[in-house]
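Usage example:
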Amino acid sequence: MSTRQFHKNTIMTTPKFRTLKFTDGATQFRLRLTTSLLSHRPLLLTNIRSDDLDAPGLHEHEASFLRLIDRMTNGTKIEINATGTQLRFKPGVLLGGSVEHDCPIGEDARSVSWYLEDNAVGSEPLELTLNGITDGTSDVDPSADYLSASFLPLYIKFGLGSNDDLPPPSIRVARRGAAPLGQGKVHFYCPIVKELNPIDLVEFGKVKRVRGNAISCRIPPSSAARVAHSAKGVMHRLLPDVWIHTDVHSSSGKRQKGVGGIVGGGCGPSPGLSVILTATTTEGICLSAECSMSHNVDSNRHGVQKQQQQIERKKIELPEDLGKRSATMLLHEIFCGGCVDTNAQTFALLMMCLTPEDVSRIRLGPLSSYSVVSLRLFKEAFGVEFKLRVDEETKSGDDSDEDDEDSMRSRTVLCSCLGVGYRNMARAST
Amino acid sequence: MKHLLSTGHRQLEWQLATKIPSQSRRPPAHAVDYTAFVPELDETTQARPIIVASCAAIERASKGPGSDSSSNFDTLYPSSRTQSTAIQYHHGSLHSLHGPTAEPRPQIHQIGPRRLREEKTLKSKKDGTLKERHNPRAFSVANVVRTQRSVQRNLDRAQKKEYVPLNDRRAAKIEEGPPSLVAVVGPPGVGKSTLIRSLVKLYTNHNLSNPVGPITVATSKTKRITLLECPNTTTAMLDVAKIADLVLLCVDAKFGFEMETFEFLNMMQTHGFPKVMGIFTHLDQFRTQKNLRKTKKLLKHRFWTEIYDGAKMFYFSGCVNGKYLKHEVKQLTLLLSRVKYRPLVWRNTHPYVVVDRYEDITHPSRVEEDEKCERSVAFYGYVRGTNLKGGMKVHLIGVGDYEMAEISALGDPCPMFDKEKEALTLNKKDTKLYAPLSNVGLVSFDKDAVYIDIGKENDNGDEEEEDDDDDNESKESDEYDSDAPAGLLKSLQDVKDGVDEKMEYSALRLFKGSKAIRASNNDDEGSSEEDEDDDGPPIQNKHRRPAQDVYELANSFRRRFDGSEDGSNEDDSRQSDGDDSSSSSSSESDGSDNEDDDDKSMSNESDSSKEKDRDDEYSSDSDSDEEEEEGASDEKQKKQTWRTGIAQEAAMNYLRRERSIANLQQLVYGTVSQSSNLVSDDEGDAPEKGNSDDESSDEEFFKLRDKSLQKSDSKKGANGPANSLEAIQLGENDSSRNLQHFDSSGGLTFDMNAWLQEGDDCLIERIRDKFVTGNWGGTGEKDGEEEEFDDFEDIETGEKYGPNGEVEESDDEETAGMTDAELREFNAKKKANQKNEFDDDYDESKKGNAGKPSDEKAESEYVEALKREKEARLKRNQEEFGVDGEASRLRYEGFRQGIYCRVRIDSIPAEFIESFNPIMPLVIGGLTPQETERGLVRCRFKKHRWHKKILKCNDPLVFSIGWRRFQSIPVFSTEDQNGRLRYLKYTPEHMHCQVTFYGPQVPPNTGILAIQRLTGNIPGFRISATGVVLELDASSKIVKKLKLVGTPTKIYKNTAFISGMFNSDLEVSRFEGASIRTVSGIRGQVKKALREGQPGSFRATFEDKILLSDIVFCRTWVPVEVKNYYNPVTSLLCKDGVDGWRAMKPKSILHVETETPIEVNPDSIYKPIERKERKFNKLFIPKSVESALPFASKPKDEKKRKTKSYVSKRAVMMDAEEKKKYTFIQAVNTIRNEKQAKKKEKKAERKLARSKELARKEEKLEATRKAKKRQHYRAEGKVEAARERKRLRGA
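Running the assembly step on the lines above writes:
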C-alpha cells in the first residue's frame, strides 16, 4: 500500500465533528449546552456579552452551570477565552451519580431551578443536590415546586421512572431559600432509562382538580393564607375542587406548624412569598402556574410588556393580588389549551426529539418565543423538524363573530416529530 | 360415550336433588381450589368448570363429616337458585358436546372410573350404602398434585412462548418496503452464481451470464427481492451478515460443511440472526442412493443443530445448461415468497442503503489536475432499516465515516406493479430485473446526466443475433466513466440509422425509465413490435423492453428538461434528439442542479395511485404549457382523468386545508426551501395549482374553508406576526419564562384584568367548558372535528361507520364513486375494523374469565398492554405523516425505507474508484449522533471454543461492531467480586472475560465479533471471539496488581523501620495509612517517613513483632492504560481487498518475521533456591520458669557420668535350661530366614520373567497402534489438504 493511502486512513480516523456555532452569545445558554451534550456535537458560542462594557463575558451563574456540567460528565472539554466572551465546548459522556453543587447567590443570581431546568440521563441514577435560591424568582425562572408539579409528570410520561427497580424521579425542597440570599437546598433525583417512550399527548380532557401551595418565608403566616384564599376565590368560580396548602417558614432551623397544617422546615435569610397552582385534567395532564412577590424591582431585565407589569407592581403587591394573579395565570394556561404549560413546552419538545424513531405527538398552546427558538435549535442539532399544525378550536359554532373574537380564540398547535432514537449509551448493561 | 355422559348427568341431577339441601349446612372441602385448576375453556363450554367443581364438591362432601370440611360451598352455590342454574348449564354443555369441543374428554373418563370404583368400594364399606357413581367429570381433578403440576407446566410453556414485543419499524405493507435482501453465501465452488442465475432465469426469464452486485428482481405483484452473492472473504461475509434479510447458505453436499459456513453462521449470530435456508448442491455426484440418503440425513442434522430443528433446506441435484433443475428452483421460490422476517434490533434502529451502483461525479477537470483528488461520488440504492435523515452521518463500510453531502429520492427503478390491474399474477412482460452491476442495464442516470453504455457486455450468451451496429459502437465506448460522453457522442454522430430504429434491435435497457415498460398503447411500441415479428428475434422480452424504455425516457426527458433551456451538456441533448421522433426536439437541455424534483417526476408513471401524488408535488412548479404538453403526449393519463381527477382534487384540497400548517411551519423554520435543500418545496406552490384546475364538483365543498383560511392569511400578513417570528430574538439572560407567546392565532396575551371580569361574556365563561363542571355535553370537541371532515377523509377513516342500516346506505353512497381499488381498500378497512372490534370483545370476555389466577392474569395483561402499546405506536407512525405530501414527509421523517435514493458523498478517496470491485457488497450505514464518537468500549467477551489459541492482551484484533469493522488493541480483564476490573494477560480458555478497547461507541447490548487476522491462509476457525457491548466510557477502570516489597531494617516491639519499599519521602507520604503485610501474615500499617536512613524508608506498626528476616509487602492496584488505537478496515480502498489493507501485526508474528528472539526478563527465570543451613540455639529456660515447671517438664540436666553405673557394669549368666531354649530359638530363626531368602529369590525370578513377557506383548501392541495412528493421520491430512486446495482455489 502506498504511503499516500495510509495518510488517507489517518485523516479518516479523525473525522471532524460538525460544530454548532452561534454568534449571539449567551442566548439559550443552558439549552444549547444541553443539546450539544445530547447530540454529541461540539458547541462554539461567540460574542457572549461582548458589547456589554460593564460585565462582558460569562456571568457567574453561567460559569457555575458549566462547572455543574463538568462535574456531571466525563470527558467534557470546556475552553473559555480570556475575556469570557467565547466558549468552546466539547461534550463528553453523561455520568450521573451523586452530585452536589453550590449555586451562586446575589442580586443577579439565578434560582436553583435555572440549573435544573434542562437535565439529561446518565449512566447511573442522578442524584443532584443544589444549594441556592429556591423561591421568589418566578418571573424569570421556575421554582423547584413548579418543576416538580409540571416537569415530573412529563418525566413519567416519557417513561422515566417506569423501571420497577428504581424509584420515580423526584424533586424535593429540603430547605427553602428565597431570593436574593437563597441558602435553600433542593434534591433532584432522576432514575435512568435505556430509552424514552414516545408520547401521544393530544387529549386535553377536562380540568378536574386544582391544587396549590402558598409558600411564605419570614413573613407573617397570615399572608400565605391570604394568598391561598384569594386564589381560591377566583378558581371557585369554575371548580369546587380547589385546595391550596400553605407552607409557612418562619426562620431557619426552627420547625413550625403552618396554617394549612403543613410543617414548614427552616428557610434562608430572605423573606419571600410565592404561590404555585396546578390543574389536573381527567386525562392526567398537569398545568401549573406560579408567581411570587418580586424581591427587587429590576425593570430592565425583562421585556417591555413585563416592564408595565413591573411598574404596576412597584407599589407593593398585596397577597390577595398575588393570589389572583396566580389564579388568572393558571386560567390563562388552561385557556391556551396545551397539554403542557407554556414554560414546559421546550422541555417536552426536547424530550420528544430524543424519543426512539417513533412518532410523538403533543398538543401545545401558542408557542412561546423561547420554544420557537428552541425548535430551530433542535432542527440544527438533531435534524428533527417538527410538524406543526394549528388546530383551531371551533367555539360553539359561532363563526359569525369570528373577527371580533379572534384575539380571544385559543388555537392549539399540534406538534409531532419522529425522534432521533437517542439511546442512553452510558448505561451499562449487565 | 354419549350414553355414559348422559348417565353421569342424570346422576348429578339426582345428587343435587337429594344431597345438597342436607349438605348445605356442612359445606364440602376445597371446592374453590378445584375450580382454580380446571383448564380454561372456551365460551361454549363455559358451564363446565362449575359442574366439575360441583361434582367434586359433592363427592368430597359425601365422604362424610370426617373429611376436613371448610366452607366454600356458598361461593359455588350462593343460593338455592344456583342449583338450578348449574343444572341448566349442564344441559347447555351437553348440547355443546355434540360439537367439536367434545374431543378431549375421553381421556378424563379413562382415568375417572377406576378411581371412582376404588373409592366407592371403600366408602360403601364404611357407611354400608353402596351407591353407583358413574360421573366421570367429578374426577377430572382427582389428583390434585398432578393437576397442579400439569397446570403449572402449561403455564410455564405459555410463558416461554411469550416474548416482549419488539418494535417493528418496517413498512406496514410489503410493497412499500425495500426489496428483501437475499444473500447467497457459501464457500467457493458450491454453486452460488448458478443459484442466482437459475433464480433470475426463473423470475425474469433472463439469462444472466455473470451475476455481479445486487440484482433486484420482482417476484410477484407485491414482492421484490434483491439477490446478492457473498464473495468468500471475511470482510464481505461480515458485511453480508449485517445486511441480509434472508441467507441462502450453499453447501456442497458431496464435500460436506466447510469452515466458512460455520464462520458465517457465527457472524450472523453476533449481528442479529437473519433467516437462513440451507441449499445443498452437487447431489448428483453421489453414486449410490444409499450414500446419498445417509449424507442428506447427516447434513440435515448438523444444519439443524446449527440453526434450529426444522430449518428449511433444499437439495439441488445437478445442473442443466448451467442452471439448477427448474422444479427444484421453483420449490425454493415458493418458500422465498412465503418467508416472514423478524425485526432485528440493529436494523430496527439504523438506516442503511445497500448500494446498487455508484457514479463518480467529480468534475473531470479536477481529476485531470490531480488524479488522486478526493472524489464526489453518488451512490444509489434502496433505503432500508429506519429512516435515513439528511443530516445523518453515515459509515461507508470498508471506506469510512462521511457526511452525506446530498440525498435525494429517485423513482423506483424496479417498481411495484399496477394494483389496478385485475390480473393476480405477473405477466411475462411485467417481469422486472434491475441489476446495474451485472451489465443488464446499459443506460444509467445520474441526477442530470445520462450515461449510455452500448458495450460488449451487451450481448451476453443468448444474444448472438444482436445487430452488428451495436458491436461497432461498443468498441468505441466501453464504460460510462468520465470520458464516456465523448465516445458516445462520436458514436452517435456516426450512426447510419436513426436511433429509434436501432433501438428496436439493440438490447438497450433503461432502469430509470423502466417503469415505462408497462403496456402503454403508443404507436411506437406497436411498430416496434411489428418490426420484431418481422425480424423474428428469439427473445421478445428483451427486445420489446428497450423500445418502451426509450419512449418513456423521451417522455421523462421532455419533462425534465423543459424547465430550463440552458443546454450545457451536449451529450444529453444529442441523446434526446435522436431518441425518439415523437418526443419533441425542443427537449434539449440539462437540468440545473437544484432540480431534484425533476428526478422524481421521471418516476413511476404507471402507478396511477402514486401518480396523483407525484403530479401534485413534483410537477407543481412546471408551467401550464408543460402540463398541456404532458396531457397531450400521455394518452393513458387522459383515460384516467375522471379517476385521477378525484384523487387529485382531494389531495389538493387537503393541501389547501393544510396550508395553515405550512404557514406555521414556515414561520418557525423559515421558508421551506431555505430549511432544506434536499427536497423540493411543494406547499408554497400548491395553491396555485389548486386554482389552475377546478373541474371537479367536489371543489365547492371546500370553498368555504378556503375562504376562511385566506382571511386568516391576510390577517396574518397585516399583523405581521410572521415577520416578528422570523426575527425572534431572545435576550442573553437565558430565561425560559417569557410569557410573550408567539401568536400563531392573532394575539393571545395574558391580561389579568380580563380574567377577573364578571358577566356572561367574560373570559372565565369561555373556558368553563374545559372544566369537568362545565356544560360541555353539546359542543364537544368531537363535533368540531367532525365538521371538518369531508368525503376525502371519510374514505381514509372508514371506521366511523358501524354495521347498522343507516350506515350501509352511507357506505353505498360512498362506494358509488370509487374505483375498484378504492373499493377494495375500503372493504378491507371495514373488515379490519370489524375484526378489531371482535378481537377487543373477545379479549374482554376472556379477561372476564374468573377461572384464571390473578397473577397470571396480571402477567398476561402486562404483555397485552405492551402489545397494545406497540400497535398503537405503529399505527401512529404510519398515520402521522402518511397523509402529508411526499416532500414534506421526507422533511419530517427523512427518507423512509423503500425509497430509492441517491446519496452524494464528497471527499471519497480516489482509491475507492480505482479499486472498485463490483462483487464486494457496498453498504452505507446510518449512524446515530452518539455513534460517531470514539471512546473506550467495555464488552463481555469469550474466546470462541473452536479458535485454537487463547488471545493475548494488547495483541491487535479486528472487531466487527455495528456497521464497522476495525482493528483495535484490546485489554482483557475480569470482574472481581468487589466490582474491581482486574487485568488479565490472556483470555481465559473456557470462560467469559471482559475486554476494553478504544473504538467507536455503540449502544450497549450490541454484539461484537473479533478476528485476529483477516487475510492469509489460516487453517481452522478464523473467528477468535464473540461478545456483547456492556458499557462506554471515556476512561477505563482496569487495574493490575502491584506488590511493593521492603525489608525491615530495625525492629522494636511492634514497630519496625522498613526500607526499600519506596524511593522518597514523598512517596511514603502518599502511602501513609496503607496496610502492609509480612510474608508470614502479620498485618501492619505504614506510619511515617523516617528522617534518616535510606530515602523512602518509613516507620510501620504491626500487630505482632516481626522478624528481621521477614519480607514486608504492600499490595496496590495500578490503573492499566488502554491504548487508543483505531484502524478501520478500509478494504474497499485497496486494489486487492483486505490483503492490501495494512494492519497492525501481533507481536508473535513480528517476532517471526523479523527473527527477533523473545526477550526474557532475567528476573522471571527460575533459579535453584539456595537455602542456608539454619543453626538454632539451645532452648534456654530461665531459672524462675524452671522452678515453676512440673517435674516432668523440667529439663533434666544430669551431668555426664564418669563411671559406669551398676546396671551396666554387672554380668548376667544364663543357666543351662535357659541357654538351651535360646539356642533352639536361634536355630529355628536361622532356618526360617533361609527359607524366606529362597522364596524371595524365586519370586524375583518369576517377576523378571513376567516383565519380559509383558514387554514382548507391549511391543506387539505398539506396532499395531502405530500403524493405526499412521493410517488415521494420513486420512485426516488428506481431508485437510483437500479443504486447503478448495480454499486456495476460491480465494
